[in-house]
Amino acid sequence: LTGAEGYVAYYSTDNKTWKKISSTSKTSVTVKNLKGKKTYYFKLRGYSKSTGKAVYGEYSSVLKVKT
């Protein structure tokens, strides 16, 4: 999202059911307490509140991480 004011990070263990991690002004997030020998999926999307209401952009590509 061009001119994004912030980003929302999501994660999943099955690439289908997504859980919100946090809202941040950064494009990177540190996630703690992940279990070993598991696969996690992550994605971000930007948002802007220039109209007073949150407008969300497209989701990023999914990042697959094995712990």
Short structural summary:
This protein has strands at residues 6-12, 19-24, 39-48, 55-59, 63-66. It has no helices and 5 strands.
Question: How would you sum up this structure, described in words?
Answer:
There is one protein chain. By secondary structure, the protein is an all-beta fold. The chain has strands at residues 6-12, 19-24, 39-48, 55-59, 63-66. Strands 1, 2, 3, 4 and 5 form a 5-stranded antiparallel beta sheet that branches. β1 and β2 form a beta hairpin. The chain is elongated.
Mean pLDDT across all residues, rounded?
90
> Which strand-content bin applies to the residues?
over 45%
Order of secondary-structure elements: EEEEE
Estimate percent helicity: under 10%
CA(first)-CA(last) distance? 30 Å
Structural class: mainly beta
Global morphology:
elongated
From the alpha carbons, calculate the radius of gyration and give it in angstroms. 13 Å
What's the total number of strands? Answer: 5
Count of helical stretches? 0
Largest sheet: 5 strands, antiparallel
Uncertain segments = none
Give the SSE layout.
Layout: E1 6-12, E2 19-24, E3 39-48, E4 55-59, E5 63-66
Antiparallel strand pairs: 1-2, 1-3, 3-4, 3-5
Keywords for this structure?
five-stranded antiparallel sheet; mainly beta; 5 strands; 67 residues; 0% helix
